[in-house]
Amino acid sequence: MRRWVVPVTTGVLLAATGAAADPIRLVTGTWAPFTGREQPGGGPVTRLVRTAYERAGHEVKVVYRPWKRAEQAVRRGTTEAAFPYTRNGARQERYVYSDPIFTLPIVPMTRAGDAGRITSLADMRGLHTCAPQGWSLGIAKLDRMAADGTIHVQRTRAYAQCLKLLDRGRIDFLVGEPPRLRDQVKRVLGDMAPVHLGDVVLSRSSFHLIFDKTDPNVTEAVARANAAIATLDGSTEYRSRVEEKP
């Protein structure tokens, strides 16, 4: 019996492999209805930020921390950026801001019986409002009016206390972004019946990612974020995700 010996050439294929890039770590806190661990998908703003980075080809990992710890995480370099933050003087000294992720109108809110009482900032002269300790009123001119005594600001430990003061007639108005005001009123007062959201837009809030100014890679990180945010331009979900009513 003849045996056929078939020579076998064994080739060794070398594949160049590179380690996959680590996900970009971002941090946010609880700010209903926009962000929060308990919100579906982390809340509409978290979903929006994740979508932006993914469209730009980046994987992200979002972690949730109390707001002070979120800023500490950025300064310590354990996360690349925190969101969503508005601009203020003290914060701008320590952080670099991305382009706006989204913007929202700021409107007045009064008791239902005072509907139409406030149509401009001038109508607030001599009136009383409320904000938690350390909070801005959200409009630079309104903060100046508070500083010079044109309006009176009662400070509380939590925003829920401000809503209760409004409901009891102890203050005259609050201001804020409609989705946030609706969410907070429903949580604290049960429904919107006791209050009136004004139709007048007093100003607009823009919300950003913030980056540590001292990070040697901050320029690249901000450019990466801005390129991601730019992918949302013209998208129907850009506005609907953050303006959806809770």
From TrEMBL:
Signal peptide as annotated in the record: 1-21
Source superkingdom: Bacteria
Record-given protein name: Polar amino acid transport system substrate-binding protein
Keyword Transport: no
Record keywords, A-Z: Signal
Annotated organism of origin: Limimonas halophila
